[in-house]
Specification:
Elements lengths: L6 E4 L5 E2 L15 E4 L6 E3 L2 E2 H4 L29 H7 L8 E6 L5 H13 L7 E5 L4 H11 L6 E5 L3 H11 L3 E5 L16 H18 L3 E5 L12 H5 L2 E7 L5 E9 L7 E7 L2 E4 L18 E8 L2 E13 L7 E4 L3 H15 L6 E7 L11 H13 L7 E3 L2 E2 L5 E2 L4 H10 L4 E5 L10 E5 L2 H7 L4
Parallel strand pairs: 6-10, 6-11, 7-8, 7-9, 9-10, 17-18, 19-22, 22-23
Antiparallel strand pairs: 1-2, 1-3, 4-5, 11-12, 12-13, 13-14, 15-16, 16-18, 20-21
Length: about 450
């Protein structure tokens, strides 16, 4: 048998090297390399040993076990009590998991997590939540909690930014849920770098992740974003945590949405909807009605479609206004839609179907601040513009779905069944859809079209 080789491991970062060195090549700490216990060479496969390949074998702290003997009940998700957040998380927070919630300033991240800790503490006498804030004082957080009704005797507040002190608070409180607001304001005194820098953020996240895995306490981190909307800090931050969520919303609207970007415990394309109010934040379980303008009379220039936001079908209304102008360069104003696709649809209507728009101003928008980037709303936009140009409304109770190509064809879209099921639930009875859309739900009458001209004729716009 080949002779076992020794290796040396850093006591600070656990980096392992084959020979002893005075300074760790990974973290730069002096005098931290200790000899690690080594096994005799173990055959990696018949005829080949680890010793011959140059790898050092170490005694494992926990022996490997068959997957059938691993207890999975201890890591089942526990609901937070906020249904829309639990939907995105995949049922709740998993013990020992680390969740990163990122969003722009003022979007409502702290307000949401205050509601989470209140509902968590209300679960039972053994559930305590620790809210650590590095951006505000405890008194400021208490004022917000009073305003939003998030005060509970088992919710503990700590205004700290030093990591060692935060760990001391955890030892004293023994919480079952930890909130850190925010990871960019925490400081590890034994790590070089400025607060919020790459080195500090990585060290803070690594320490809190190790704490979560060792203690089983779920940790929710609030993170900042850059001006481009990306999570601030090193890219490795998103790799260290288990779940990455983006909290977004328009400052001019009360609607807020949480999108799953990464989720090791569930689907990563779920969306949760919230409404930000003066007295706090509330989940919106049925957001489709927020994007529709209910009116008694039919109005020209409007069309309703169903877009998919993740796995969630949402009804949205597209509005268009076509007005004559003497300006040699007619204006094109777009709100809530992709301006490039709007220009393409207008060109298709004029070139393929004879709807003259080159001497008219065109305004296109969505209702309720909804953002539609799904190509499936192309046909609804074309119908809304044609309806506005003809000053003729489309029949009430009609849903329009389809992607428009440069040749004027209407292409199939994904999830037509789920989209139309949501439309039928909201009271719509007729749907203009591409041909060969598959099995459609009952309660809604489909009108299949192969091109924009067929859709215009079906809706009496030609």
């Amino acid at each position: 048998m080949a002779r076992a080789k020794s290796s040396f491991r850093c006591s600070s970062c656990q980096h392992t090297v084959a020979k002893w060195v005075g300074r760790c090549p990974e973290c730069g700490t002096w005098g931290s390399m200790d000899e690690a216990p080594a096994l005799a060479a173990v055959a990696a496969r018949p005829g080949v040993s680890l010793a011959r390949s140059g790898a050092a074998a170490l005694l494992p702290t926990t022996p490997a076990a068959p997957i059938t003997e691993i207890d999975g009940t201890a890591t089942r998700a526990k609901p937070t009590g906020v249904d829309e957040l639990d939907r995105v998380l995949g049922g709740g927070v998993v013990p020992g998991s680390v969740v990163l919630l990122a969003g722009e300033p003022g979007v409502g991240k702290s307000t949401l997590l205050l509601e989470v800790v209140r509902r968590w503490a209300s679960r039972g006498p053994d559930d305590r939540a620790l809210y650590v804030t590095g951006e505000e004082s405890a008194g400021q957080v208490r004022l917000r909690a009073d305003r939003t009704g998030a005060v509970h005797e088992r919710v503990y507040l700590a205004a700290e930014s030093d990591l060692a002190t935060v760990l001391g608070h955890i030892e004293q409180v023994r919480p079952t849920l930890l909130i850190v607001d925010s990871v960019q304001t925490m400081l590890a005194a034994d790590v070089e770098g400025v607060v919020g820098g790459v080195t500090q953020v990585r060290a803070i996240t690594s320490a809190l992740t190790s704490l979560a895995k060792a203690s089983g306490i779920p940790v929710l981190l609030i993170g900042h974003v850059t001006k481009d909307g990306a999570v601030a800090g090193p890219r490795s931050l998103e790799h260290l945590v288990d779940v990455v969520l983006h909290f977004e919303g328009d400052r001019h609207s009360t609607l807020r949405m949480i999108r799953g970007i990464k989720n090791r415990f569930g689907a990563a394309d779920e969306v949760g909807c919230f409404e930000l109010r003066e007295d706090g934040i509330a989940g919106v379980s049925d957001p489709s009605g927020l994007f529709l303008h209910h009116q008694a009379d039919e109005v020209s220039g409007t069309a309703v479609t169903v877009t998919m936001d993740g796995k969630r079908p949402l009804l949205g209304e597209v509005q268009a206004l076509v007005a004559p102008t003497h300006n040699p360069s007619p204006r094109r104003a777009v709100s809530g839609l992709d301006s490039a696709r709007v220009s393409m649809v207008l060109a298709v209507l004029e070139r393929r179907h004879g709807i003259k728009l080159s001497d008219r101003e065109v305004y296109a928008a969505t209702v309720g601040g909804m953002r539609m980037t799904d190509p499936s709303c192309d046909l609804a936009l074309a119908i809304a513009v044609a309806s506005a140009g003809k000053d003729r409304p489309i029949p009430a109770g009609t849903i329009v779905l389809g992607e428009v190509g440069l040749a004027g064809e209407v292409r199939r879209v994904t999830g037509v069944g789920r989209r139309l099921a949501e439309a039928a639930r909201m009271g719509f009875t007729r749907a203009v859809v591409p041909v060969d859309s598959g099995d459609l739900p009952k309660g809604i009458r489909p009108v299949e079209v192969s091109n924009v001209g067929d859709a215009l004729r079906a809706l009496r716009l030609r």
